[in-house]
Structures are given as structure tokens and as C-alpha cells.
Design brief:
Elements: E1 2-6, H1 12-16, E2 24-27, E3 30-35, E4 38-45, E5 48-53, H2 56-62, H3 69-77, H4 82-90, H5 101-111, H6 116-130, E6 133-136, E7 139-142, H7 147-150, H8 155-160, H9 167-180, H10 190-197, H11 205-215, H12 226-235, H13 243-254, H14 258-271
Antiparallel strand pairs: 1-5, 2-3, 3-4, 4-5, 6-7
């Protein structure tokens, strides 16, 4: 199946390389993207972005194609913040993905105090070791493992794959999710969801916000990392030191659009370095 979309508000490069997803790789004129047990090929083609896949409904939702990002961009511009204006202009093609919540829990546990190439490598090795082999466009890939599969191995297994100190986090959290599931988390309000996520081994405030934003679709969440902390001081004149308080500042300032705005701000700061 082929999906065509206006490229103005959908830049494959910007969407995939902004830190919200780790399972993608350059391919021909674009990227192959993997989510759960599915794959697609996405590329820019003139004024369109083209998605080739076997499950159109899944990737239509995955790339959030029902949402009008022109309105989101305009709302962000209305805050009249210089660095945010720059982010809206440079990163007009950014979108927030609707990703699988369980995959995001494990992915962002792996992401803490880590760099993107290493994160991608660890996740890929886990998929190859515990996922199932599939084929897409003549090439093999591996599905993201179910929690039961992740829970079937020890912390030493994850350490051998390069997870470092996160080995016990992956082992213990997968065992808990394999026992309990996460279905009850979807009905929680965002404040309660974050509190519950913080009870999982290896999930701190920033990781919880990332999981909430990218895995549970809570667009009012605003992850605060080193880049955002730097931006807060340099571009907002902030004096707070506690990241939880910085998070509260941005959430109050930007409300229901906070998650989108975090991506615009992150993009502007990164591109300006």
C-alpha cells in the first residue's frame, strides 16, 4: 500500500531524527521504519512524503496523519517566543509519532544516559535475539519482542548485549509487565500515569515523560533533558535548577500543546549549535 501526504508538515528526516524513535535506518531515498512487528519505507518525493507499507491503517495512525499540524504550528507561533518561532519555521515538518507503549517503556529505559547510535544498537541486538524474523521489501528485519520474551532471559543476557547498568532495569521491568500487563495504564490521567510509570525499575521523571508522550499519546507532557535545561536557562532566562520544576514551568506555560512545543524547541536548539 502507498500513502501520499503533503511534505510541508511531514519531513521524514525531521520526524525520525528528533529522538522520539530508535528503530529506523536509511534506505534508498528515505528510511525503513520499524514498529512492533511492522515495517514501512518512508521517503520525501517532491512536495509529497510517500509511505510504502503492507498495513496502511497502522502507519496512517503511527505517523499521526489525521492531525492538522498547520494548526499546531500556528498555535506554537502564537506564544511569540523567539526560539520557538525558529523551531516552528525550521522544523515545520516535525510530527509526534503514535508508538507502541510497551516498546517505548523498554526503549526509553535503554535511552537514559546514552547516545542514539548506542541506543539503536542495543535495541537492534535485543530484537535480533528475542524478536521474530520478518521480511519487508526483500530484506529481513526482526520484530520488537513481547514482554514475555524479554522476561524470559536474565539481566546478564542484557549486559552481554551492551545494556550496561540498565540490564537489571530491563530484566525486572519486563518480568513485571509480563505478569501484570499495562492495559490499566491507558485509562489513567497523565499525572497518575507518570506516577505509576515511576514505579517501574529504571524509569525516572524524564523517561516517564518520554513514555507518556511517545507511547501513550499524552501530548501535554514535556520531557526535560540536558538540551531543554540548557535552552531554559539561555533562551527563557530561567533560574530553576530542579528538572522537575523546569518541567512544571514548561507544562504550565504551554498547556495541552507542551509535547509538540518541546519538539520544536529541541529542534531549534539542536540546529542552532
Amino acid at each position: 500500500m502507498i500513502i501520499d501526504y503533503d511534505r510541508t508538515y511531514f519531513s521524514p528526516k525531521d520526524v525520525l531524527e528528533c529522538g522520539q524513535i530508535f528503530r529506523f535506518a536509511p534506505y534508498k531515498d528515505g528510511y525503513k521504519v520499524y514498529s512492533k512487528d511492522k515495517a514501512c519505507y518512508v521517503r520525501a518525493d517532491g512536495n509529497k512524503t510517500v509511505i510504502e507499507c503492507t498495513d496502511g491503517d497502522y502507519f496512517y495512525n503511527f505517523f499521526d496523519l489525521d492531525r492538522d499540524y498547520a494548526l499546531i504550528n500556528a498555535k506554537a507561533l502564537s506564544f511569540d517566543v523567539p526560539i520557538l518561532k525558529r523551531g516552528c519555521e525550521l522544523g515545520k515538518g516535525l510530527r509526534l509519532l503514535n508508538q507502541d507503549a510497551e516498546e517505548m517503556i523498554y526503549s526509553f529505559i535503554i535511552s537514559q544516559n546514552n547516545n542514539i547510535p548506542r541506543i539503536k544498537g542495543i535495541i537492534e541486538r535485543i530484537c535480533r535475539s528475542l524478536g521474530k524474523k520478518r521480511d519487508f521489501m526483500g530484506e529481513e528485519y526482526y520484530t520488537f519482542p513481547a514482554s514475555a520474551a524479554l522476561a524470559s532471559v536474565t539481566a546478564d543476557f542484557y549486559k552481554a548485549l551492551g545494556a550496561g547498568y540498565r540490564d537489571s532495569y530491563l530484566a525486572e521491568t519486563s518480568q513485571r509487565i509480563a505478569r501484570e500487563g499495562i492495559s490499566e495504564l491507558y485509562s489513567l490521567d497523565s499525572v497518575t500515569l507518570k506516577k505509576r510509570l515511576l514505579t517501574y525499575k529504571g524509569v525516572g521523571p524524564k523517561v516517564a515523560d518520554c513514555i507518556s508522550l511517545f507511547g501513550f499519546g499524552r501530548r501535554e507532557c514535556f520531557p526535560v533533558d540536558t538540551w531543554i535545561e540548557k535552552l531554559y536557562r539561555e533562551d527563557f532566562g530561567g533560574t530553576l535548577k530542579d528538572r522537575n520544576k523546569i518541567n512544571a514551568y514548561f507544562c504550565e506555560k504551554f498547556g495541552q500543546e507542551a509535547g509538540y512545543i518541546q519538539q520544536y524547541l529541541f529542534y531549534a536548539k539542536r540546529e542552532n549549535m
